[in-house]
Design brief:
Number of helices: 6
Radius of gyration: 17 Å
Shape: globular
């Protein structure tokens, strides 16, 4: 399998962590990908030119949610995505919340990185920051406790990636809004395979 991604991509990190949790880490070759480089071959395997993209057995899979579901099924199913019932939809809904927070966080990065300074729109940043804050507050209200040992579910993988990405890019200090998640993250980090190996680089 080939995984096209970037070390700083939180969506790519979700997939990388899943490969460790599911025991595929030694079967995956990481292909560093720069989506801003017009000469990068990513568009040949994903017409959207987006990461992460997984290549396996002649097929290409994207986005991260699809890739993780594919890997989960390849591992026998019902590992990090519950197979059925209310627990499945709970995990998928939490995963969607984490993806939405990450989308907002990335848009804040793009606003400062992709626009000239005089075109920077503070209202856009404030709107995206509001989504992040509401998302964090919603997570705290559910009183999450990490108790799944070596096999977190897809929502928990996403939450770890959210917190670390906010630390990495500093869109805001999540501890100001969700201080109780610090203990949650410590438990997760201590137990889950691939957590440290997939950590984004410190710039």
């Amino acid at each position: 399998m080939k995984l096209r991604s970037s070390p700083s991509s939180p969506f790519g990190r979700k997939v990388k962590m899943a490969t460790y949790i599911l025991g595929f880490d030694n079967q995956v070759t990481l292909v560093p990908t720069n989506t801003m480089d017009t000469n990068d071959s990513i568009c040949g395997v994903n017409p959207l030119g987006k990461i992460p993209t997984l290549e396996d057995n002649g097929s290409n899979f994207y986005d991260s949610r699809v890739i993780i579901e594919y890997l989960d099924a390849k591992a026998g199913g019902n590992k990090i995505i519950p197979a059925s019932g209310s627990v499945r939809y709970d995990a998928l809904t939490r995963a969607a919340l984490m993806d939405g927070i990450l989308d907002a966080a990335i848009l804040i990065v793009y606003e400062s990185r992709m626009r000239p300074e005089d075109k920077y729109v503070q209202a856009v940043v404030a709107r995206q920051r509001g989504k992040i804050i509401r998302g964090l507050e919603s997570i705290v209200a559910s009183k999450p406790v990490y108790s799944h040992g070596l096999i977190p579910d897809i929502g928990e993988i996403g939450l770890a990636c959210v917190l670390d990405y906010l630390d990495f890019r500093k869109q805001l200090n999540w501890r100001d809004y969700a201080p109780s998640l610090e203990g949650w993250l410590e438990e997760f980090a201590a137990l889950v395979p691939g957590y440290k190996e997939s950590m984004p680089p410190r710039e």
